[in-house]
């Protein structure tokens, strides 16, 4: 690995102040899985009765830890639960050894906390294709169990970082019947997958009381418009994991109609998703792609992803070039329905194309000035129907090539 | 535009010697469509009776010239025919004006050559979204018609270049009943679409006699394993055009069973396809992705394209990094069937992964040495069935970013 990359220019000013979530405590340690002189293992303890919902990579080559989490999601939440995460080694593409490592870690964690093994969720992120030295993690579990603190969420966010340039956290307080429900989450990730390491990992905690199946439905639905709407480089990790744990410590019960809570959870998920994009490898611009007028929401999403993943559009944004022709190209290749002569395109508030041709009001100098901003919005209206979608991405720069191609030099 | 990019390190030694094709003649001129001091218009005249087949971009925002060609393909080949091409302006996303320009150019060409307008095929390549000054082309048609020569195919290849760093030609001579049938073709393109310009244009000529519908079936079938199997940057042009013209001048008639002729045509198409990849923007490596053992040929193609289009794999190749973990990632995300623990991967002859884990014979130093070659073969066996595919691509380098992002600086 070369030198540590500099802080992303799109990083927030600092780690936010996150509320304590009743029933959740954290501990971190230096286990030397791969990194030296930094924390690399996180243990999260969750009170008995905590409902845990999740969403995972759909990769056909997903890791053993992801498969294990998927098996355990939905099981009876009577007992306590735990999340154990290591950075430095992804335990992905490690054959049968991978599953054995997951079993060893989750059973040892269950034993250290006195909970059933089917309530221990694990994640690993880092290099792939190398056996995980899981005994280094297991050796630290007793120490971790005795060091658990409800105040350690920022150190938790730092322990799971790999190529991230900043730790990521977000929170919301939602008022329900005059009482506060808290939601706090952490995330890591700076590419869908990064130099042999990385993956997106997200852990969100709330003191709301909510049935596991209702929480799972909310998470699955909200995931569709948050984490599933970001892309750094179109590449998908073998280990992406989102876990949402509801401890019930607030004593306030949510239902499928708790719109205030659902909106709070959505905001936390979207904030963390945006932070992952802002830490995208080599990113210098934060870009929103908004598509309206598509034949359906699903087709709007296909168009938005085609625009957000186009290397030519991402390099044009890096070059501060208002190259709307490349947007036309991406819509054309997406496979979703489009009529060239109905297309309208805006960069920010500026209409650049209309009825399939350059807009009469288009001014190259103004458009070029707009592209110098750090945050860019590209809006496309297809003129076909009511389908809409929003997707977030970053630009494609020399920094991306430096991180990913010059890795061995 | 910045300085002209240097000659691709993957360029052939020079333009090949191509045979004269009876019934085909070429003329080029400087019309100043956009470029100054270089040829930018090509006229090809085809003898009466020439069958013309084609394959075109499937972009939903395809250009007016592509739509016009698609309308005309398959019409009665009794009369003579023509192809007229300009570089410098793609006449794409130019609304109703685009169609009017195509009509004006094809009608003027028909008039200059005394052939019906429905036998004139046109292409335009260059900037998109700017009205085509078609009168500059029309003003030159009488001169072009009087300058036609059967020997000018190399100048033809040069007149259609945009960001290409070398002109592209290929030929085959096929023996049929002891007599020679000739095939010669030219191509341009150095990205699926390039800095506001580019597009892949391919014109192939043969003196074989062949029915238009049989030629069309051959071209459609061969296109699937040649031009449809190359990718530079996953972006698809609004103007990609392949035209194959069979004049019949050899007097030798081909049928759907003329395997020798079909194999010759395939070799010319594949050679030109490979030359387009070798001129890929910023390319320093020519890469073959070979997939075997997939559940079907179609799924093998999906896996191969996912590998060939992955920015992380393309940057790893640029960095001479034998990063087989990223190949696993791309297979996982492709959407086609895969079983992680059956995967085997080779870089050249070196097996790097086996049964879902690093191969016992893997040697990092040998693999790193292999990656220093200019031509790289990545072979994946999925262990599922008999499906196979081959795809060709290039690496993703700082040169690509220079050409596409630094365009305005």
UniProtKB/TrEMBL annotation, chains A, B:
**Record-marked site positions (Cleavage):** 198-199
User: Which residues does substrate bind?
Assistant: 162, 188, 199, 281, 404, 409
Instruction: Tell me which residues this entry annotates as catalytic.
Output: 199
One of the GO BP terms on file: L-arginine biosynthetic process
Q: Give the InterPro entries listed for this entry.
A: Arg_biosynth_ArgJ, ArgJ-like_dom_sf, ArgJ_beta_C
A GO molecular function for this record? L-glutamate N-acetyltransferase activity, acting on acetyl-L-ornithine as donor
UniProt catalytic activity: L-glutamate + acetyl-CoA = N-acetyl-L-glutamate + CoA + H(+); N(2)-acetyl-L-ornithine + L-glutamate = N-acetyl-L-glutamate + L-ornithine
Presence of the UniProt keyword Acyltransferase in the record: yes
Q: What do we know about how this protein assembles, alone or with others?
A: Heterotetramer of two alpha and two beta chains.
State the name under which the record lists this protein: Arginine biosynthesis bifunctional protein ArgJ
Organism field: Roseovarius mucosus
Its organism's taxonomic lineage begins at: Bacteria, Pseudomonadati, Pseudomonadota, Alphaproteobacteria, Rhodobacterales
> What gene is this protein translated from?
argJ
